[in-house]
Structures are given as structure tokens and as C-alpha cells.
Amino acid sequence: MSNENKTEEMEDDVLNNIENQELEQDDSSSESADIEKSQELSLEEQLKEDLSKEKDKFLRLFAEFENYKRRTSKERMDLFKTAGQEVIVSLLPVIDDFDRALKEISKSEDQEMFKGVELISNKFKETLKNKGLQQIEVKQGDVFDAEIHDAITQIPAPSKKLKGKIVDVVEMGFKLGDKIIRHPKVVVGN
């Protein structure tokens, strides 16, 4: 072989080696690109998972806060409904005194005094009624209910119709909203 042939062969070998190296680099770069894509996908998936976990935490926290708001507002409303309960309970004997006073004044002949006391009594009762106080309606002949009425004594029934029923109302009962704050005291026939 001549030197020219050898040189051409060597050049061909070098060119082939360069081409092979380029091909290998392309292969390795595509492999690394594939690896990077898989890492990107896994990174993307991981970020999606993290995002969904944070969304779930947020929704749970939001729901818990809403429940807290609802519960505290309900407690506050209940407190407002019965906030004046102590004051109103302490005023119930005044209502009883007005009723006794009206009963006694009606026996006298001074109608002007009776009208004046009656006006004050009605105004007082209306004011308490506006604050949520309701009188429990109880009358002779009503069926005795241990949940509502407070039996202070039992007497022999004056008639067969009044057996197990209310014979007399000693003290009226009152409700504040739906809650009974004083049970009516009654006498029951047996």
C-alpha cells in the first residue's frame, strides 16, 4: 500500500470514529433527555400530589372553621335569648305581688286606684313579654302533666271529673323562649 492509501484509510478511520462518537453522543444525550423527562414527569407528578394534599388540608381547615363559626354563633344566640333570665326570674315575684294587689284593690270601692295599679301592672307585664316572657296557661280542670306542672299537694277531688286533674292554681308558671323558668304550682285532685 502506498502512503496515500494509508493516509486515506487513516482519514476514513478518523472520520468513522468521529461519526461513531457523534452517534454515541446523540444516543447518550437522548437517553439523558429521556431521564430528564422522566424526572420532570415525576417532579411534576410530585408537585401535583403536593398541591392536592395542600388543597385537601385547606378544605378541611376551612370546613372546621365554618363549623366553629356556626357553633359559636348558635351559642351566642342562645346566650342572648337567656341573657336576662336571672333578672326576669327575680322580677316574677313582683308580678305575683301585682296580681295579689289587684285582687285586693278590686274589693275596695276606689276604682281610680284600681285602674292606676292595673295600668302599671299591664305595662310591666307587656315589657317582660317583649323580652320573651310567656305565661303558661293553666286552669282548673286541665290534665296534670309532671313535665310542666309542679304539684304542691293532692286533695280529694270535688267531683269525679277532676280526678287526676288540676283543682287549683296556686302560682302561675312562666317560660322564657322555649325554656320553662318557673313551673306552675298546682293542687291536684285524687
Automatic annotation (TrEMBL):
Its main localization is cytoplasm
Keyword set for this entry?
Chaperone, Cytoplasm, Stress response
User: Quick one: where's region Disordered?
Assistant: 1-47
Q: List locations, semicolon-separated.
A: Cytoplasm
Q: Which InterPro entries match?
A: GrpE, GrpE_CC, GrpE_head
According to the record's subunit comment, the protein's assembly and interactions are: Homodimer.
Report the HAMAP family cross-referenced here: GrpE
**What protein does this entry describe?**
Protein GrpE
Recall the taxonomic lineage recorded for the source organism. Answer: Bacteria, Pseudomonadati, Bacteroidota, Flavobacteriia, Flavobacteriales
